[in-house]
Amino acid sequence: MADTESKPERYIRPPSVESSGEAPGRGRLKGRRILIVGGGQRVFDAASDPIGNGRAMSILCAREGAKVAVADLNRSSAEQTVKRITDEGGDGLAIAADVTSEADVVRMIDEARRAMGGLDGMVLNVGTFGKVGLDAVSPEEWNKIYDVNVRGPMLCCRAGLPKFDDGGAIVFISSIAALKAGSQMAVYDSSKAALGGLMRNIAHLGARRGIRANLVYPGLVDTPKGREAGAGRPSRGKSHIPFGRQATAWEIAYAVLFFLSDESVYVTAQTLAVDSGLSAM
Fold it and tell me: Residue span of the signal peptide, if any (predicted)?
């Protein structure tokens, strides 16, 4: 007799109030001065775009009591993030900066530190995509992508570390593309993988002053950038994700919050994949 018992439906992890960005602040960053590099967001479909990682991080840090400097290549986008912060009663300012320009990075660090009265936290949420494979990527394009994805964070750390207060924290934002060749974009995957080596060196350099450096690997996240990457690929972010859905930007932001807060005061040179286990299973 044939077994007609139907298979159970896939469990889909329901969002929490934190996942939806609706949880109240708990004062986890009270008195801190945080610079979010890449705190604006790109537009894919203005009518339906969800919040992006950098904007969620910025709002959450302010909600948790920090002064927040929101830096972005697009000043208008940074200002929109700051408006979200101030509308909630938070303290934020916008800075326009191009991380591929050393002069811009030095100015950004100085401006943030001066406006906030110090600097003890920085999130490096920068990155740009490339083409699939190797043959389609010219050497010039390869270098441009590395300039943003690797050289930019290096410049931020080089300019920022001497200006940091002791005991601060730096968080790098990589991607699970650094852990597996799923995107097929060799230039993107390898540049994001390089951040791990950079992070460990920054942790080593900062250790004598108690400055911690850690790294977050976001998985598939429902953001404007994620939707752009998945355009034309309707299966992206569905059946093969262990929890049955993509992450929200808020879920990435809470991982960053942990690394910025004193809850992780004895954690440095570590990585955390926020991907429902996608990179390991």
Answer: none
Q: How many domains does the chain have?
A: 1
Q: Select from 65, 10, 77 the least CA-distant residue to 38.
A: 77
Higher pLDDT, 73 or 12: 73
CATH number for the domain harbouring residue 226: 3.40.50.720
Residue 26 lies in a domain: no
CA angle 198, 186, 250 (to 5 degrees): 65
Question: Does residue 146 have an active-site annotation?
Answer: no
Q: Is 67 annotated as catalytic?
A: no
For residue 42, the enclosing domain spans 33-274
Residue in 146, 188, 217, 254 annotated catalytic: 188
- What are the strands, taking DSSP E only, across the chain? 33-37, 67-72, 91-96, 121-124, 169-173, 212-218, 271-274
The pTM of the full predicted model, rounded to 2 decimals, is 0.93
Q: Which residue among 30, 146, 180, 192 is the active-site one? A: 192
Amino acid 105 reads: V
